[in-house]
Amino acid sequence: MQRFLFALFLPLLFVMAAPTKKITLFNGKDLTGWKIYGTEKWYVDNGELICESGPDKQYGYLATEAFYKNFDLSVQFKQEANGNSGVFFRSTIDGTRISGWQVEVAPKDHDTGGIYESYGRGWLEQIPAEKETILKPGEWNTLRIRVEGDHVQTYLNGKPMVDMRDAKIGAANGSIALQIHDGGGIKVRWRKLILKEL
User: Beta partners for 156?
Assistant: First the structure.
């Protein structure tokens, strides 16, 4: 009887122990799997993904073609010039109007790691002054975003930044999107965009 029960539950044990699926969102060569919104510049240089303001100096987005609802995303960024950008999650885009939530990527003292809802409630979580020293301007930084159900957590260079729950976020679904803020003069480098589906 014990052998029978073991044989019955063994496949379930393998399913439960299966490793989390990892997805490399950026292949280091081209923009396969992504879609450009707007007229700003998105290109690959030396294995890095670059976002840069164009002559129109408007908002621009680069979004995954696939939707990701529950995930743990790690991405490295390096700000050059004005680094006002961000990583959107559970987002949908029409033209250059985006619906979703942004994890801020911005110059020092401008809430990198905070959560902003575009065309909605605005700031949901800003960063306290004592955490503004975690950002390393002009160097590579690692941003981690974990979203499961209505629970959102962000980390910058291994330090916790935001831990919040929100029913509206919990009900949404959409793509991952990188942003170029309007105003011009923006350039940010991105690399190692690795997503684990939860």
Answer: 143, 159
